[in-house]
Design brief:
The protein is mostly helical. Helix content is 72%, strand content 0%. α8 packs antiparallel against α9 (159-184).
Length: 187
């Protein structure tokens, strides 16, 4: 049922996903859904956990065997493709917080962070800078993908070319941070 809800959210948008619409899609009466979820909020949380898990699989699989810029590009492309293919389920992940460490949302989120952390390890980012670097990657990847999914790039320059420019920019920035960290280290 959660997978059907996620697919429907991708079709109609998360904001338009309702229990009634999902029941109609599944060919059941709305009260029947409450045997599986506690309501709309629970459904959205489950969709978010599914989306984070799927995104973690996509990014984690894409970076296998790569390091440095190649890993960064593979991760960014996989994340972008996921958001473009699944805009509704990805929207469910925004602003939702895990209820605790055993929450499937937390587990899936940690897996996705782990994939991006693996990319950053190739840049030898200091542990004290890792949160900042992860936020930077998230901001770049999320921002570009969600703008593209919302048709936010309407001028003539090629979107793929702009995306590759973004990856090159992030790569150069991460390389610069490594150099900066090395030059400021105590002897």
């Amino acid at each position: 049922m959660v997978a059907a809800g996620a697919a429907l959210a991708d079709e109609v948008g998360l904001a338009n996903l309702t229990m009634g619409l999902l029941a109609e899609r599944l060919g059941v009466r709305t009260p029947s859904l409450y045997k599986h979820v506690d309501g709309q909020e629970d459904l959205n949380r489950r969709i978010a956990a599914l989306a984070l898990s799927e995104a973690a699989d996509a990014v984690g699989g894409a970076i296998q065997g790569y390091a440095g810029r190649d890993a960064l590009a593979a991760a960014a492309r996989a994340f972008r493709a996921f958001v473009l293919e699944h805009p509704g389920r990805y929207a469910a992940t925004i602003g939702v917080e895990p209820s605790g460490p055993d929450d499937p949302l937390a587990t899936a989120g940690q897996r996705l962070l782990g994939a991006f952390t693996a990319v950053l390890r190739g840049y030898e980012i200091k542990e004290s800078d890792m949160d900042h670097a992860l936020r930077m990657l998230r901001s770049l990847s999320h921002g570009f993908a969600t703008l593209q999914a919302a048709n936010g790039f309407q001028w003539s320059t090629g979107i793929d070319e702009s995306f590759e420019w973004l990856v090159a920019f992030a790569d150069q920035g991460l390389r610069a941070m490594k150099t900066l960290s090395s030059s400021t280290a105590s002897p």
